[in-house]
Amino acid sequence: MRSQRFFIVGLVLLLSLFVYGCGAGTTGAGNTSAPSSTQSANALIVNSTLSALKIEADIPPMQVKHQVIVVVSIFPTGGPIRVSDVSIEKNATAIVTNATPVGTPGKTLVDAFGANHSVDATATLETSPDVFSVAPTGPQIKPLDQNRVEWDWFVTPLIDRNQTIGVDIEVQWTSMKDGKKSLPYTLGYPKFPVNVQAAAVEFVPTPTPAPVTSAPPDPLAIFVAILTLLAAVLTFSTALITIPGFRHWMRDLFSPSKRNPPAEPRAPS
After folding, report:
1. Which residues contact 40 (CB under 8 A, 6 or more apart)?
2. Rounded to 5 degrees, what angle do the CA atoms 112, 115, 120 make?
3. 26 near 35, Cβ under 8 Å?
């Protein structure tokens, strides 16, 4: 009996370990799946002029006359560090003519022109005013002492079909001693393709006419109408009386001899 009891207890323990192992294996397998990304499905990522920085544009689906928010950002590829702490490589060059070199290779962006300098970036949305309505217009300035620098615009497409939206991102250094600014250095000038859908045709129902309601009678208008009628009757009567034939006819009509029949003669007594 004791050996059977030990056998049953051991069998239960083995089954428990087996079930636990299967559950742990399933959980582990789930944890090895790819991590979920917070990046938008509409995001487009391109290279900047610095290999350690990327430019990302989040452009939602567009439709004529429908306003959307376009977000453009820059972020380091080497981990969660500030954009201003990104190192400059030796072969970093601007992609526009007559631009200032990026600064001392091997230094960070904030120290590219030595200490006591601040560094900012400006972004300008480059579009045609005949194709897109953009607000705000002009460049937006943002400091680079953050892990991701973002700019956003309200964009309303005016024309359908395939279009492009360009973004000009430039960096500029300012001396904290005398306020002197360097010439801008271009981090990137990508052009993103967008497909603008035509405006949907909206059915406008024919409005039902409102029932005509009669206004209540105006007492003053009724009084004026009665006075007008009496004046007309009085005028007409006065005109008839002035006619001699009408006066004779009225006199004969209301004469007592005409209204009362002649008395019958009495028989002699």
Report:
1. 58
2. 55
3. no
Between the two ends of the chain, the Cα-to-Cα distance in Å is: 169
Banded pLDDT at 153 (limits 50, 70, 90): very high
Task: State how far the Cα of 183 lies from the Cα of 102, in Å rounded to an integer.
Answer: 10
Fold designation for 43-197: Immunoglobulin-like (2.60.40)
In DSSP terms, which residues pair with 248 in a beta bridge? Answer: none
Cα–Cα distance between 197 and 66 in angstroms, integer? Answer: 10
- C-alpha 105/C-alpha 91 separation (Å) is 8
- 250: Cα within 13 Å, side-chain hemisphere: 9
* Distance from C-alpha of 55 to C-alpha of 49, rounded to nearest angstrom: 10
Give the pLDDT confidence score for residue 95 in this predicted structure.
42
SS3 for 41?
coil
Between residues 207 and 171, which one has the greater pLDDT? 171
Domain ranges of the chain: 43-197
DSSP 156-181: EE-S-EEEEEEEEEEEEEEETTT--B
User: Does 10 have pLDDT greater than 90?
Assistant: no
Determine the Cα–Cα distance for residues 115 and 109; give it in Å rounded to an integer: 11
Q: Alpha-carbon distance 137 to 121, whole Å?
A: 16
Return the exposure string of 130-157: e unless at least 16 CB atoms fall within 10 Å of the residue's CB, then b: ebbebeeeeebebebeeeebebebebeb
What confidence tier does 259 reach under pLDDT thresholds 50, 70, 90?
low
- Ranked by mean pLDDT, the top range of 168-172, 212-216, 219-223 is 168-172
Q: Could you give the CA distance from residue 269 to residue 263 in angstroms, rounded to a whole number? A: 17
Q: Tell me the mean pLDDT in the region 224-242.
A: 78
- Residue 42 is given by DSSP the state T
- Percentage of the chain modeled with pLDDT above 70: 69
pLDDT at 69: 96
